[in-house]
Recover the amino acids of this structure.
């Protein structure tokens, strides 16, 4: 899907809504409140009324689009831009691309980005299997080009990455890299039948990996691939490097509070990098995910790092 495709196919609210209805209700329109399939289309544009409970709704009621005043074609272009930006796109960049420098507000663009990002947070992900690489990295550390203020108030955040070789990656904003924390991620994300878990020589992994088969590479001795074997953590590291380019190059300053949301976005896009339906799939998530209100998004304030 390209920008000209989106502009042509989804040029009006009605055309966008038609797709959203199909994605939300592949089996036919259903009342979001009581699941009744007996609904009547009201004269008023795009609205339905449930015959069972009389609730009135549209394809976007109770979804990520809920209560938005932005035209749907603008939403669709924003979704495409975020899907296609492999290293992420800042709210400022999105604002400039959609509205130029004089119109639109940064706040609107920021909230728009966060709502699309919220839809990219997936539930019920399959367990990772086969050869699984696990590694930890620190973000928000010594980044060049930041002023004294940021340098002083910045705290490094731990990100744990787990990747099935040739398959999906998972990122986690971890409290620490201690064995108990790592063990929890292993238990929740790696199949008990995994062939082998490959990590670096951080001692915490030994205990965390437990009874699974475990191989390590000694990064401190500059060993990146065990000679004559395929023991390495290069594929999880390549996912980390894309993440870091997003944080340093596109998003610049992100708060510890919102870090998990950025990790979800990066993970979602990375795991679909070879799929041609990334755009449609993102829209499908947006009409099936819960709304994200501005109040919820901004409830607690935390320093950026
Ligand atoms: Zn109903």
């Amino acid at each position: 899907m390209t920008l000209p495709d989106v502009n042509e196919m989804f040029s009006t609210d009605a055309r966008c809504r038609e797709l959203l209805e199909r994605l939300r209700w592949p089996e036919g329109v259903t009342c979001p409140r009581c699941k009744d399939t007996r609904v009547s289309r009201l004269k008023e544009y795009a609205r339905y009324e449930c015959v069972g409970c009389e609730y009135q709704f549209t394809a976007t009621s109770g979804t990520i689009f809920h209560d938005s005043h932005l035209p749907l074609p603008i939403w669709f272009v924003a979704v495409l831009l975020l899907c296609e930006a492999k290293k992420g796109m800042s709210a400022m960049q999105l604002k400039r691309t959609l509205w130029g420098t004089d119109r639109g507000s940064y706040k609107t663009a920021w909230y728009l980005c966060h709502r699309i990002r919220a839809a990219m947070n997936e539930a019920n992900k399959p367990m990772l299997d086969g050869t699984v690489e696990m590694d930890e990295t620190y973000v928000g550390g010594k980044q060049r080009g930041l002023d004294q203020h940021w340098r002083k108030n910045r705290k490094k955040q731990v990100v744990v990455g787990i990747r099935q070789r040739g398959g999906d990656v998972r990122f986690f904003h971890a409290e620490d890299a201690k064995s108990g924390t790592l063990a929890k991620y292993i238990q929740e994300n790696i199949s008990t039948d995994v062939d082998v878990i490959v990590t670096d020589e951080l001692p915490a992994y030994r205990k965390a990996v437990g009874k699974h088969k475990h191989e390590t590479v000694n990064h401190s001795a500059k060993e990146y691939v065990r000679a004559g074997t395929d023991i390495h953590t290069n594929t999880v590291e390549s996912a980390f490097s894309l993440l870091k380019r997003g944080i340093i190059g596109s998003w610049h300053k992100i708060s510890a509070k919102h870090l998990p949301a950025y990790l979800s976005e990066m993970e979602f896009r990375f795991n679909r990098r070879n799929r041609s339906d990334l755009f449609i799939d993102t829209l499908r998530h947006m009409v099936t995910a819960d709304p994200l209100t501005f109040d919820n998004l901004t409830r607690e304030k935390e320093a950026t790092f």
About this structure: The pocket of zinc ion is lined by residues 31, 33-34, 36, 50, 52-53, 55 (CB under 6 Å). The beta strands are 39-41, 48-50, 56-57, 131-139, 157-164, 169-174, 196-200, 214-217. The chain has a mean pLDDT of 90.
